[in-house]
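User: Reviewer 2 asked us to show a designed sequence for the structure in our supplementary figure. I'm pasting the structure tokens here. Could you produce the per-position amino acids so we can include them in the response letter?
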């Protein structure tokens, strides 16, 4: 269900999932314009949830709410299914709550007949499907709406948000877009948890509601040719998932299905697809590449032939008596260690002579491990930056001396600067202080990696557990 979904697909999904969801989490942003003295819909977010009404009512009470004469956020819960779509198509919704009755007016449109766009999105730390619908011919009216919304920036800042759009993102459960009248969010009622390999079998774990039938697992195997293009080599007979008693959680069960496969080579790609049989819509997908028998065999062996592991451990844990500054030896050893763990790394530790100006023949020492503001003032530091694809960036400072509080503060400043620079949701930026000494300390904002942690990291690399090694950093 990616790209565009038809209204029929939306209706089919919402109708067929009566056992997957319990509650409609209804969130309405409305305004009163000078010309119309009644609440009018700006955007209505209808979120289908698996939790009870009682649980969601407690959750809604924690959400930020602005309510004044011109602008209001209405939060409500309804049993699923509730006929909320029919009520919207009639042109109004009447809400009855402890705070009094409210009527929200809609332009008379049927959300199930509008153009619907669907995307996969994160909501409440779970995958969810987001479907958007917009009415046409309302540009002038929306100008009035936009002016009223922008007037709420002060109240949004008083609640701790940078602007009203950031607050509205949290209310609607996804990115707020001007021009969207209606958002339906189907929170993750079923999900592929893991795909793993063992000899000639693939194991797929699926989390789903205990009462929901009609889910199907499809499995295909693809192999890359010499040009890097993947082509299907096997299609495994699909598996229908039936109702089972819960094993892990009150309303969910974790189902494991084993698929027999033919010969699978390292780096073959196995795709597991979870579909809703009634509509054929894809609920979740997961790709996994078949692993090597010994992940680090070629890399670690090659490294060991240049620098035997015992010598490497000496560089890492006792970086003295090598004819160079010990802090530089330690930084180099740490950069090698991070590479062996599977990080992409850049080492900044050595100063470089650069021209004082484009025309000048005079040179100055440039410290690339010092992060400078445009004004030239130092605002942070990093000896090494390490990157795990689309997962995290490590800002690493190496220190062979005693724990330095000022270095910790500079690392925190570095992280804040990079976060503001990148503005990428989901990418973790982790400041790390690494020392060859035993440090009995912990910091909430900087990851402290001392001798004990380094030893664990090296052991995981030697065993080939590269993912486990990288997870040590968070």
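Assistant: Here is a per-position design you can include in the supplement:
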């Amino acid at each position: 269900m990616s790209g565009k979904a038809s209204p029929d697909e939306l209706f089919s999904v919402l109708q067929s999932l009566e056992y997957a969801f319990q509650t409609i989490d209804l969130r309405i942003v409305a305004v009163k314009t000078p010309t119309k003295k009644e609440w009018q819909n700006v955007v209505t977010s209808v979120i289908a949830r698996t939790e009870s009404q009682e649980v969601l009512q407690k959750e809604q009470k924690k959400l930020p709410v602005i309510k004044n004469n011109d602008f209001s956020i209405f939060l409500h819960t309804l049993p699923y299914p509730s006929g909320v779509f029919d009520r919207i198509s009639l042109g109004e919704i009447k809400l009855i709550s402890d705070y009094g009755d409210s009527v929200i007016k809609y332009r008379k449109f049927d959300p199930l007949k509008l153009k619907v766009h669907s995307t996969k999105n994160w909501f409440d730390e779970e995958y969810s499907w987001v479907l958007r619908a917009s009415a046409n011919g309302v540009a002038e009216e929306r100008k009035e709406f936009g002016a009223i919304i922008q007037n709420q920036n002060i109240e949004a800042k008083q609640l701790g948000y940078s602007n009203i759009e950031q607050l509205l993102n949290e209310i609607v459960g996804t990115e707020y877009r001007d021009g969207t009248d209606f958002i339906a969010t189907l929170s993750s009622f079923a999900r592929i948890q893991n795909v793993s390999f063992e000899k000639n079998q693939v194991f797929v774990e699926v989390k789903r509601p205990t009462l929901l039938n009609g889910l199907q697992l499809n499995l295909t195997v693809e192999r890359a040719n010499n040009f890097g293009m993947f082509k299907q080599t096997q299609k495994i007979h699909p598996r229908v998932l039936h109702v089972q008693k819960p094993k892990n959680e009150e309303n969910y069960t974790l189902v494991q299905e084993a698929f027999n496969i033919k010969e699978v080579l390292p780096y073959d790609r196995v795709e597991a697809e979870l579909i809703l049989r009634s509509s054929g819509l894809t609920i979740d997908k997961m790709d996994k590449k078949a692993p090597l028998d010994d992940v680090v065999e070629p890399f670690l062996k090659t490294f060991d032939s240049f620098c035997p592991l015992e010598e490497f451990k000496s560089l890492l844990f006792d970086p003295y008596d090598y004819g160079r500054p010990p802090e530089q030896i330690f930084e180099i050893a740490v950069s090698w260690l991070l590479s062996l763990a599977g990080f992409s790394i850049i080492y900044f530790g050595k100063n470089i002579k650069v021209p004082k100006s484009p025309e000048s023949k005079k040179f100055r020492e440039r410290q690339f491990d010092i992060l400078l503001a445009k004004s030239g003032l130092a605002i942070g530091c990093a000896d090494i930056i390490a990157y795990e694809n689309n997962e995290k960036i490590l800002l690493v400072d190496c220190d062979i001396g005693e724990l330095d509080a000022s270095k910790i503060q500079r690392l925190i400043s570095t992280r804040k600067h990079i976060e503001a620079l990148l503005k990428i949701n989901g990418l973790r930026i982790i400041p790390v202080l690494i020392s060859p000494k035993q440090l009995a300390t912990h910091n909430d904002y900087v990851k402290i990696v001392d001798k004990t942690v380094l030893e664990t990291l090296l052991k995981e690399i030697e065993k080939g557990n590269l993912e486990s090694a990288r997870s040590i950093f968070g």
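For the response letter, you might also mention the following. The first strand starts at residue 3 and ends at 5. Residues 405-422 form the longest helix (18 residues).
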